[in-house]
Structure formats: structure tokens, C-alpha cells
Specification:
- The protein has one domain: 2,3-Dihydroxybiphenyl 1,2-Dioxygenase, domain 1 (Roll), CATH 3.10.180.10.
- It is 22% helix and 35% strand.
- It has three helices and nine strands.
- It has helices at 15-25, 64-71, 87-96, and strands at residues 5-11, 29-30, 34-36, 41-47, 52-58, 76-84, 108-109, 115-119, 129-133.
- The chain is globular, with a radius of gyration of 15 Å.
Length: 134
């Protein structure tokens, strides 16, 4: 069902510093920051030859990333994102298998302008999983 790893998301307390670290220290290509008010985050994508790293920073008081950073002030891995060919088929199959889809179960448009869903970390070895329609 799942395809390639689309990205690994890292919550960061200082987005500019994190972007500089990847760009200037590691030599990666780094996107400009993109505010995503519907998700309560600002994102920066670090492009690698085989995948991406998504740097997440809180946007607004109700940001879920702020809660994560309150518990993990230095930041850390927030989620992994896998591609699926059809998000609705994947959702239904996962639900039939007893997996919990977060939110109302309906896909939202994610950072790549494609439908995404998040799956409960307790169902995936303690890892928050995002699936994105490829």
C-alpha cells in the first residue's frame, strides 16, 4: 500500500537557524518558508536526492507544533510521511485493519497541495504517520 518515503518532519524552535544549518553547514537546497495557517505551521523543505526533510515551526497560538515544542524544547522528529496512490483507498483499508485516522477522517490539503491524513502514533510503534496521495 505505501510507496516511497516522502519526507521526515522535524519540529524546530528556530526556523531560520534550522534552515541555515541544513543550507550552510550541510550544503542542502532549502526552500523559502511557507506559512500554512490551516495547519498552524510554517514549513521549510530541505531537498535531498532521495527524499525531503520538512522543518516545522509553530504559526499562531493554537499550533499543534507549539505543544510538541513545549514538551521537546530543542525540537525533534515529529512525523514521517509516506506516499500512497489513492488516499481514500488507503484510509479505508487502514480503518478496516483497526488503525486510527486522526481528525475527522477526511483528507486535508497538505504542504505539497496534495491530500493528506495523519495516523495515530500508538498504532505505528509510537510514530506519527502522515500519508500523502502521490
Amino acid at each position: 500500500m505505501i510507496g516511497r518515503l516522502n519526507h521526515v518532519a522535524i519540529a524546530v524552535p528556530d526556523l531560520d537557524r534550522a534552515a541555515r544549518l541544513y543550507r550552510d553547514t550541510l550544503g542542502a537546497r532549502v526552500s523559502a518558508p511557507v506559512p500554512m495557517p490551516a495547519h498552524g505551521v510554517t514549513t521549510v523543505f530541505v531537498e535531498l536526492p532521495n527524499t525531503k526533510i520538512e522543518l516545522l515551526h509553530p504559526l499562531g497560538a493554537g499550533s499543534p507544533i507549539q505543544g510538541y515544542l513545549d514538551r521537546n524544547p530543542a525540537g525533534g522528529i515529529h512525523h514521517v510521511c509516506y506516499e500512497v496512490p489513492d488516499i481514500l483507498v488507503a484510509r479505508d483499508r487502514l480503518k478496516e485493519a483497526g488503525m486510527r485516522v486522526l481528525g475527522d477522517g477526511e483528507p486535508r490539503i497538505g504542504a505539497h497541495d496534495k491530500p493528506v491524513l495523519f495516523l495515530h502514533p500508538k498504532d505505528f510503534c509510537g510514530t506519527l504517520v502522515e500519508i500523502e496521495q502521490a
